[in-house]
Amino acid sequence: MAEGWARALKNDVVEVFSAGIEKHGLNPYAVQVMAEAGVDISAQKSKLISELPTLDFDYVITVCGNAHENSPLFPGRTRIIHAGFDDPPRLAESCRSEEEKLDCYRRVRDEIRAFIEKWFFSGLSRDLPQNRL
Asked: What's the predicted TM-score (pTM) here?
């Protein structure tokens, strides 16, 4: 969802790459709630960090505790920012209905959108000449 929001909201100012420390596949609930918000993530792929191109990233943003704790070191001037969000699949485990599950994803979707909008609005991403995220 973070990749989808970054591309939808800030594609004109950043080059977005997304990967994790584990592959989980594309979650159908995430696809559905993002589509509800007008963002199509159905073509996105679950990738490992090792599958990304070799670049000097300006920023690496971790969105869950596991990624933050196990993220590899990045060379150079890369700034790592942790923006911890609840894990929607984990939240949805205790839900009794499909609508409750979707509500978990909707909440996290909206939190991620707010973070991306605020992060760029605050100017944090403008202090480096190339913004690769």
From this structure: 0.82
